[in-house]
Amino acid sequence: MPVFMIERRYADVLEVTAEVADGVNAINDDEGVQWLYSFLSADKRKTYCLYEAPSADAIRRAAARAGLPADVVVEVSATVRPDGSLHPV
Asked: How many domains does the chain have?
């Protein structure tokens, strides 16, 4: 399954609860999308999320249904390690 990095920009400070995450995960399941994890910026107004999904459109549909921004959606194919080696995701 393809892997995508999603940048989300929020107008307000992001507050995440288990209830919110459960709702997002239920919508993602409907769209065939799997949330792997997210990085939260120091000011809590931006996240960088890693997802598995059949397509970028599936991510955008899930985000719209959940009321989440999906400002940038990029398919990624590999990671680069500090030693310069490439590893498929």
From this structure: 1
Q: What are phi and psi of 2, to 5 degrees?
A: -60, 150
Domain that holds residue 67: 3-88
Q: What is the pLDDT along the chain (89 residues), one digit of tens a residue?
A: 999 999 999 999 988 899 999 999 999 999 999 999 999 999 999 999 999 999 999 999 999 999 999 999 999 999 999 999 999 98
- The CATH number covering residue 57 comes to 3.30.70.3090
Closest by CA position to 36, among listed 20, 19, 24: 24
Q: What is the pTM of this model?
A: 0.89
